[in-house]
């Protein structure tokens, strides 16, 4: 009897341990209905129901769409968040801090302003490199303002100290610029600095191209961090395209033709003609030739019919 009940409830999908517990409590002669009620009261579920209860990973799809492509566009082409489409940011902490302090004071508040600006845009990977000796108490020849900000950014895993040590009373400092360029190059990100890193450009030709194309300069205007809207010049990409992995190309805007319908350039006209949207843009001479060829062709066909 025990084995038959075990087989019966195992076929329903219940676990053997739960069935044994119930049979011990109710006895071997308990009815199947009583055993089933006890299993339900214990919270035991068949394996099929447990698999159905597990939430499946569904993707949001726009209402009215027939496929998941529209839903994926809301998250990005590969289904990732918008933050994944933004480039990593590597900030030259010393350059930013000295620029905010008018090259007289190492202003840590300037670093905070730059980090906040990129956070508001949605960048998740932000790293700031500062020499380790900046943790030391400030001196007269190297004043530091708002030094507590460095500790807060270090706790947030945003600030990274480049190594330095003292040998016989002299400070040995590693070259922090090489850290900045190397990390930005490996991450395919953007360098935030007003330094041109000419010595590193001469070291590596790949770094030379990267620094020329991925260096984002900036200015501070009344405690406001302001990078340029055209980082690579007037004819280069916009700031939003510069900071994104997949730039959005602007729509081409056609300038209307100043001559309008009186224009005689035809398809050679470089301006936009709204009246020629559904017409082949031919020059006036070509249009006249096409009109004269039509009646000539009709006349030749009539002559052939008469001869036949």
Automatic annotation (TrEMBL):
<dbReference type="GO" id="GO:0005634">
    <property type="term" value="C:nucleus"/>
</dbReference>
<dbReference type="InterPro" id="IPR040546">
    <property type="entry name" value="Rege-1_UBA-like"/>
</dbReference>
<protein>
    <submittedName>
        <fullName>ZC12D ribonuclease</fullName>
    </submittedName>
</protein>
<dbReference type="GO" id="GO:0008270">
    <property type="term" value="F:zinc ion binding"/>
</dbReference>
<keyword id="KW-0378">Hydrolase</keyword>
<dbReference type="Pfam" id="PF11977">
    <property type="entry name" value="RNase_Zc3h12a"/>
</dbReference>
<keyword id="KW-0479">Metal-binding</keyword>
<dbReference type="Pfam" id="PF18039">
    <property type="entry name" value="UBA_6"/>
</dbReference>
<dbReference type="GO" id="GO:0036464">
    <property type="term" value="C:cytoplasmic ribonucleoprotein granule"/>
</dbReference>
<dbReference type="InterPro" id="IPR021869">
    <property type="entry name" value="RNase_Zc3h12_NYN"/>
</dbReference>
<keyword id="KW-0460">Magnesium</keyword>
<keyword id="KW-0862">Zinc</keyword>
<keyword id="KW-0540">Nuclease</keyword>
<dbReference type="InterPro" id="IPR051101">
    <property type="entry name" value="ZC3H12/N4BP1_RNase_Reg"/>
</dbReference>
<dbReference type="GO" id="GO:0016787">
    <property type="term" value="F:hydrolase activity"/>
</dbReference>
<dbReference type="InterPro" id="IPR000571">
    <property type="entry name" value="Znf_CCCH"/>
</dbReference>
<keyword id="KW-0255">Endonuclease</keyword>
<feature type="zinc finger region" description="C3H1-type">
    <location>
        <begin position="251"/>
        <end position="276"/>
    </location>
</feature>
<dbReference type="GO" id="GO:0003729">
    <property type="term" value="F:mRNA binding"/>
</dbReference>
<feature type="domain" description="C3H1-type">
    <location>
        <begin position="251"/>
        <end position="276"/>
    </location>
</feature>
<comment type="similarity">
    <text>Belongs to the ZC3H12 family.</text>
</comment>
<dbReference type="GO" id="GO:0004521">
    <property type="term" value="F:RNA endonuclease activity"/>
</dbReference>
<keyword id="KW-0863">Zinc-finger</keyword>
